[in-house]
Amino acid sequence: PEGLKSSQEYYERALTLDPIHVGARIELSHIYEKDLLSLDRALKLIEDGAKYRYGTAKALDLYLRQARLYGKVGEDDKRDQAMAKMLSFQSRLDRSRAKQEDGFSPF
Description:
Blueprint: H1 7-17, H2 22-34, H3 39-50, H4 59-72, H5 76-103
Helix pairs in contact: 1-2, 2-3, 2-4, 3-4, 4-5
């Protein structure tokens, strides 16, 4: 319908307002990837997001997305680095969760 913005425009606006918004970045990269001429644009968007330091488990999706896109463009070394970063981040999340659970007592 006329006058309505596209989801691409909304995600782009969200990233303008909050450049570290992981969900908007991932979804926008999917939109870019659907246009095969924009695969490089999707990868750049994810690479830019991977430069931030995240404290949310959603970042795992970002690193996985990055690894998949590197695989699609044939950059296997970078794909492996992204997977290593994802696994390292998962390990940090697990340690943090364990510390929180160890320190928690309902009594």
